[in-house]
């Protein structure tokens, strides 16, 4: 009985709304930002800003290079 219940709950959890997002009838869509020309669409609202997913930064060194001597790189005092 329990495995069947678990499978039913997992199947129910996997179901989701497939389609366009619209506000529920008594609710109104979000207000447009003050500096925007027009109100944003639901797809535009769901798009993550570039800061949320930064682009990959490659290492600027293509080959290993020896470091020059640093006169300030001293061992810790005893």
UniProtKB/TrEMBL annotation:
Keywords: Lipoprotein, Signal. Residues 48-78 are annotated as: Disordered. PROSITE patterns: PROKAR_LIPOPROTEIN (PS51257). Residues 1-19 form the signal peptide. This is Putative small lipoprotein YifL. It comes from Polymorphobacter multimanifer. The lineage of its organism: Bacteria, Pseudomonadati, Pseudomonadota, Alphaproteobacteria, Sphingomonadales.
